[in-house]
Amino acid sequence: MGTDSEKPGRATGLGTAGVAVTLAGVFVNGLAxxxxxxxxxxxxxxxxxxxxxxxxxxxxxxxxxTGLQIAVAxxxxxxGRAATARPTLLTVLVTAxxxxxxxxxxxxxxxxxxxxxxxxxxxxxxxxxxGRWLGELQGDQRFLRLAGGMALxxxxxxxxxxxxxSLGGGLTGSLLAGALTSVLVxxxxxxxxxxxxxxxAVPSLATRTxxxxxxxxxxxxxxxxxxxxxxxxxLPPDVSGTYAVGTVLTKGALWxxxxxxxxxxxxxxxxxxxxxxxxxxxxxxxxxxLVLGSALAGGLAFRLxxxxxxxxxxxxxxxxxxxxxxxxxxxxxxxxxxxxxxRWPAAPLWASTVIFVVAVATVVPRTxxxxxxxxxxxxxxxxxxxxxxxxxxxxxxxxxxxxTATTTQAEGHVTVRDG
Length: 419
Description:
- The chain is mostly helical.
- The protein has helices spanning about 5-40, 45-60, 65-80, 85-110, 115-140, 145-165, 170-190, 205-235, 235-255, 260-270, 275-295, 300-305, 315-340, 345-360, 370-395, 400-410.
- It has one domain.
- Helix 2 crosses helix 9, helix 8 packs antiparallel against helix 15 and helix 11 (about 275-295) packs across helix 12 (about 300-305).
- The longest helix has about 35 residues, at about 5-40.
- It is globular, with a radius of gyration of 21 Å.
- It starts with 5 loop residues before the first helix and ends in a 7-residue tail after the last helix.
């Protein structure tokens, strides 16, 4: 416990860290947003749909990065500075092997070129490796440096693609630039985290923990990106291009409150219930604002996302935004279940994905409205089920343990360590 005179300074430090992480998240999500926006202006409808599909595949393939980051952050928040090199290496190797098996199949089934999927694989592996250093910074609550690391990774992951598209490199050229910059940024992340240190007395991070977190993250990404992949599969190329523009709004609503998840995760690892409910309120509020804005200015939203040719599809904007807002709530809930070491934390998401895919393949109308409506219904059901399970888990916890965890967190979390 610090003295009373130290508390205001600590609170200010935490607020500054929150602002820094927010700005980093805005920067990263802004670059991610710019990629399809530039694609809509520099690529034809078919290539735009291919770009959106590749971005979705890259996000799904890169979930091991987020899973690794979550596992490292939760372990460090609970136990201290543990060794993470071995689980990181295993995660990277397994990811590379899975990409080598699945990307060629995806190239055939989704009508993608071999160079594009190869470059996507290189980019994804680099992003996965970066999860270790971001997780160490997050678990140590070094949020200012974490913000810098997030910005660096975003610049590497998306900045190269933005440059490639702006310079007329086309689909393959933009992926080549993104792959090169993603690999180069790893060296900067290592230097940023050079003084994180390892405590030999702390138990090492178990690979199983990384697999659990990665599996949950994979489920979150698969269920939220399944609609764009199915749109690519079942809609004509020009119509799937329109759907790709709509998913820009989905991803905006999904990732806009990302800072809440980043800041709250160490608290969730220590059992802070109030932090969970506060995070849910913040994320739900942000989603409501975005859905309202898309309902009032749907045409403008589609025009900004894809250009004037897509403005007529603005009537679909609230549906896409609401889907992303609901999945943002689901992401908070699943992170809370992972932090609480719940067994099979993402089971509802996998079930929702299977039901959604079967429905689109059999009964859902193969139109923008049909697939987007089914995606919204899936997001709503998933949020309700996951929320029920999370609240049931909270009620099943012993009150004494909950109070102890909350008190410990209140005393320890306010310190933001940055050099």
